Structure formats: C-alpha cells, structure tokens
Amino acid sequence: MSIIWTIIIGFLAGVVAKFISPGPNEPSGFILTTILGIIGAFVATWLGQQIGWYQPGQAAGFIGAVVGAIIVLVVWGIVTGRRAA
User: Which residue from 81, 56, 65 is spatially nearest to 15, judged by alpha carbons?
Assistant: First the structure.
C-alpha cells in the first residue's frame, strides 16, 4: 500500500512543483509529472535522512516531496538548458 501512496503523493507533488517552478523545458504529461514527483519524494527523503530530519525508514511528507520535486525541476532545467545551447 505504501507504493500506491508514494505514487499518489508523487503525482500531486509533481503537479504542485510544476505550478511553483514553471519553465520552458519542464517535463510534461501525466507519467512524467508522476515520475518527477516520485523522484522528488525520494530526493527529499534521502536529503532529510542525511541532514538528520528523518529517521531511517521514515519518508518525507508532502511538502518535502514538493521541495524535492522543485530541486529535480531546477536540475532538469540546468541539464536541458546546457544541451540546448
């Protein structure tokens, strides 16, 4: 059941992150938005555990997932911006 919640929270976090940080090279579509949010949730969980905010086995919440997705969007923009130049 936790995988299903991760996908749902990931999708919602991806949608919110795309509204907060729009850009011309952002990934679009349902699948890419969901993947963006899920990767953001994993990034937020990993960073939170490294910093000491989360215990091992504890996942980031919705706001953490949104912040992680924004980080992923910024990195995506940097990588795709360099390729386009």
Answer: 65
Residue 55: which residues within 8 A CB-CB, separation 6 or more? 49
Higher model confidence: residue 26 or residue 11?
11
18 vs 76: CA distance, rounded Å: 12
* pTM of the predicted model as reported, rounded to 2 decimal places: 0.72
Distance CA(53)–CA(33), nearest Å, equals 26
User: From CA 16, how far away is CA 70, in angstroms rounded?
Assistant: 9
Which helix (H) or strand (E) element contains residue 68?
helix 62-84
